[in-house]
Amino acid sequence: MGEPLLAPVLRLLEEGREREALALLQTPQEGLPEAERLALLGFLEGRKGDLRAYRALALEAAQRAQTPLTLYHLGLALPPKAGALALEEALRRFQGDAKGEARLHLALSLALERLGRPEALAHAALARLKDPSPWTTLHHLRLELLFGTKPFPEVLEEAEPFLPHPFPGVRMLAGHTLALTHLLRGSSRRAKNLLRGLLPLLEPPSLASFLVLGALALDPPEVRLLLEGAKAFLPREGWPWGFYLLARGLGEGDEAHLLAAHGLLREDGALYALLSEARLKALGVEVEAPLAPGLAPGLRPEARAFLLGQAEAPFLRLLGEGPLPSLGPRGTEALALLLAHEAGLSGEALGEALYGEPNPGALKALLHRLREKGFRIACSPYRLENPPPSDLRAFLRALSRGDLEEALALYQGPLLPWSQAPGVEELRLELEEALRQAVLAQGDTENLFLLAERLGEDLEVWEALLERLPSQDPRLPIVRARVARLRREYGV
């Protein structure tokens, strides 16, 4: 029968020869599985700006056959929260094919990036390890700029050789990565020169990703031309239109465009919603449920300054996997316990919570170090007089007033998951169970979805979500697959 048609179609798409790929995909052919054909047709629709057609075809493809390729496109086509779930499930099911796994890790890194989650970097690194292609390399370098620690000169050294690459898509991704590096370094002139060199190569599918960097680096006449060109081609939905509105808001200092951009990007382009948030704050406008408290701690310092400005107040992140504050493990545990108990704790109770038994000497030394760092801690009972802004206290207050959307947004994971202090372990379980029971009792579909995503393997929550999802919801096959797997694993 000869070489299957899927491989040459993928090569054509990688090389940017989309018309030739479309010619092979337009009619069913022997050697080209129908599910993969539909997924790739959807991808081409997405490249033309029709995101709804991409989503519909990707969903139909995944319903016909769940393969690494169809689930890859389903993960990219769905909104990022649902897409990330689909890709996580796919990674559990498809192992042993390095290229297939790399494709899924790459798609998952992109979905997580759109949510502003630092785990995106780990999946990009795995994609690069399993399939060190230009695409995986450049996406990994780009996410290093946002969440990693790789020195900027090393990013430039690794990305620059891809600028003359024969594939247009690789050249554009390299240019985007290099321009972002220069902006993070404060070299707007170099970013401007680089973007100017890429402008003649821009095609409609690449416009959206260059709008924001262009608005920050190019001269106003060039930005206006870029916006006029983009307006004619971009769909009026999702992150592409959010980038258009943000670029206009940045260029014109317009509150209405910045607010509209923030609304579109907060769940599909969250890091750039931070940029909108910061500009609105500079204009004296506060947004509802700001994203900065939850997302800022996961960013590398240069990216945080770029997106939020240097003056953004520090925010202590204690929920979920995040960088350890500069207080040391014991200091962080003590601070978490004092933040959770606003009325204070006796010395005996605090010592037992930290060490498993009263330990007055160690406790006094620890509290002395915290006071040296500027924390005012009253005695009898021990109580914070100047509690720092933190996700933990904000979460507890949201939960107490019944604001479950805010509580779920703040609950990025278990309290100090690395800690084995008895009081922290007990508090960790109490927080999760309180949130869990509140969401299950409320029964709201979107909140159940967020909770299921946060807890990962909680069968009761997934079953509650499955019961409430309408039959036309695109997340239904993902949720059904997760429930089936968990029931098998738990022997239910």
What features would you describe in this structure?
Strand 1 (377-378) and strand 2 (383-384) form a beta hairpin. The chain has helices spanning 6-14, 18-25, 34-47, 51-64, 68-77, 80-93, 98-114, 119-130, 134-147, 152-159, 168-184, 188-198, 204-217, 220-233, 238-252, 255-265, 270-282, 292-295, 301-308, 328-340, 347-355, 360-372, 391-400, 404-410, 422-442, 445-455, 459-468, 476-490; strands at 377-378, 383-384. The chain has 492 residues and is mainly alpha-helical. The mean pLDDT is 89. It contains 28 helices and two strands. Among the domains are: 312-418; 419-490. Helix 3 (34-47) runs parallel beside helix 5. The protein has a two-stranded antiparallel sheet with strand order 1-2. The radius of gyration is 24 Å and the shape is globular.
